[in-house]
């Protein structure tokens, strides 16, 4: 049998007991250390990613939402309705349903379209997310009711207001009411006459002159409707020197509108908050009138609505502007107090500031809409200013 004997002079074949190459050992140690370091790095990275995806931080993420056509969700009973061209759109902001994860928080810093909001700005302290959602839905329901009342009154309908007293919202410093009436107190009688609404309180005060004493029956804030009697001497009204002045801002407690002349329902089952008030008001006007409020254009709006037709501030303007830009709307109506914020992100979008429904309708006339809606003239011939009023 043939055999092959290794040539001991061949450098590729080392004897079995030859000493390891020092350079090879060094390279092997370096490779092993790199493997260990990479393994630790990958483990830490995976752990960080998993932890970041599971660990929540006390912040919420606000991102652009969408716009929705109001006329499509409005139903009316008790009055004729008319087809509409164009669209009044309300705008939403997308908010994370719970506190964001650490990973989301980190990624959000690289997205200019989003806002990181502290948790207590989204969900008030001592309130659960579900309670906060319920409050947002209640605010949305209230905004629909107010929008209905404002739209109907603007179109000339008579709306009856009901309540259980005039609740004090503020007292002017230095006025007769200051230090006598407190926020949350509710006036239920003035000189023996029942007071059920804020308007009734104002009317009763204006029946008196400067220097007249009045007797108020009050249900104090925080008490279980145990009444107290307080006597106040009226001052001179700064706006009309012949009228008495108490110096309070008030609202109606348990405000309701029994027997509305027209039944209006607005379906937005999953949207909360009061910021669509202006959109609903204009949408209801459009449905109830011939012609087009929008002039056939796509119009976006945002802003709360009060019973005087005044437009109030909202949140998330940055994200709402971006949503409107993506929607293709020709015009965006915003509360005047937030116009500067809206302009920062508007780009080519036309943004118009408004104080009230009349401002909004006037802006729409520039696009060929709104001409057919004329506001009724108040009894005193003066339009209500969209600022807190004092009686």
Topology, pairings included?
Layout: H1 22-54, E1 59-69, E2 74-77, E3 87-95, H2 102-108, E4 115-118, H3 119-122, H4 129-154, E5 166-171, E6 186-190, E7 193-194, H5 198-206, E8 213-219, E9 228-233, E10 235-236, E11 244-245, E12 248-252, E13 263-266, H6 277-288, E14 298-301, E15 304-305, E16 311-312, H7 317-327, E17 331-335, H8 339-346, E18 350-354, H9 357-365
Parallel strand pairs: 3-14, 14-17, 17-18
Antiparallel strand pairs: 1-3, 1-4, 2-13, 5-6, 5-12, 6-7, 6-8, 8-9, 10-11, 15-16
Helix pairs in contact: 4-6, 7-8
Notes on the protein architecture:
The chain is an alpha+beta fold and 391 residues long. It has helices spanning 22-54, 102-108, 119-122, 129-154, 198-206, 277-288, 317-327, 339-346, 357-365; strands at residues 59-69, 74-77, 87-95, 115-118, 166-171, 186-190, 193-194, 213-219, 228-233, 235-236, 244-245, 248-252, 263-266, 298-301, 304-305, 311-312, 331-335, 350-354. It has a six-stranded mixed sheet, sandwiched between helices. Strands 5, 6, 7, 8, 9 and 12 form a six-stranded antiparallel sheet that branches. α7 (317-327) crosses α8. The protein has two domains: 59-157 and 261-365, Ribosomal Protein S5, domain 2 (2-Layer Sandwich); 166-252, PDZ domain (Pdz3 Domain, Roll), CATH 2.30.42. The protein starts with 21 loop residues before the first helix and ends in a 26-residue tail after the last helix. Helices cover 30% and strands 22% of the residues.
